[in-house]
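As noted in the main text, all predictions were made from sequence alone. Below is one such record, for 4-hydroxy-tetrahydrodipicolinate reductase.
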Amino acid sequence: MLSLTLCGNCSLLPRLNNRRSALFFARTKRTTFVTSALTREKVAISQDAMADSRNLSFPILVNGVTGKMGKAVAEAAVSAGLQLVPVSFSSVDKPARTLEISNIEISVHGPSEREEILSSVTEKYPDVVVVDYTAPNAVNANAELYCKFGVPFVMGTTGGDRPLLYKIVQDSNVYAVISPQMGKQVVAFLAAMEIMAEQFPGAFSGYKLEVMESHQATKLDTSGTAKAVIACFQKLGAIFDINEIEMIRDPEEQINMVGVPEEYLSGHAYHVYNLTSPDETVSFEFQHNVCGRSIYAEGSIDAAIFLHKKVQSKAEKKIYDMIDVLREGNMRRC
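Prediction:
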């Protein structure tokens, strides 16, 4: 939710702090998105494009199906009519095991088997696309693996050494979609923020920024989306140190202070950004809340479809992000 508060009298404006920001979270317990229309460009989803997406099928390997996000992507892939490769990898060497996703038996292999298994996958499925939802400390090693075998991939995992990640892909000339945020609507909001930062630098000069983000306890790193939005606010002139982000991972605080529905404690993404003018007479509040994982899973499938088409058309550009996917305009209705 995007909330704007303007006041010409300091006494009428509540002073913002992190705890008041948290209370603002509780006003919206359902997924809410309002994206600013700061650009004349329109994402056009034609009936022909939608039909093309429905009729398209290619092999997709989801790395990380043992996790909730990877499982959600695998289920979305099957629902979209893609060919789910019955192979995945885990970060721990254990005897090969299987798990069932959408009536498909997926064989899960440890790190020591990765190269041998991926080599056999590329032979059997030469046009395979990988979607990665593993762990931050596996991002760079996994990218090196995909690039070694020339496999196009969607990197949905956040964290890792991002500059190194881009260098690995650039040096290998492999196609990839790399984005800290796969939710299409949230990406549209990020795009609007980037346009605003580019066209109106310094518009919030001197404003104090406060940021809070809440995710499931298993998310170890700071929200990549929050970092991206903060970078835009900094270009707009807001004062903020990235280390000041308030991360909430405690379930009790998430229920009582943030307002996360209990059934979504294991999968949610709540963000709030508060901006206050130097004299504290003007405040802006930006909020976007997500419950569940479907928005990211469906966005990841759109990214995989987009990437497959780029590979097939031998596109000159090799590295993309979700804004590129949005601009293509061929997304499915989800």
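The first strand starts at residue 2 and ends at 6. The CA atoms of residues 269 and 282 lie 27 Å apart. These features were considered when defining construct boundaries for the mutagenesis experiments described in Section 2.9.
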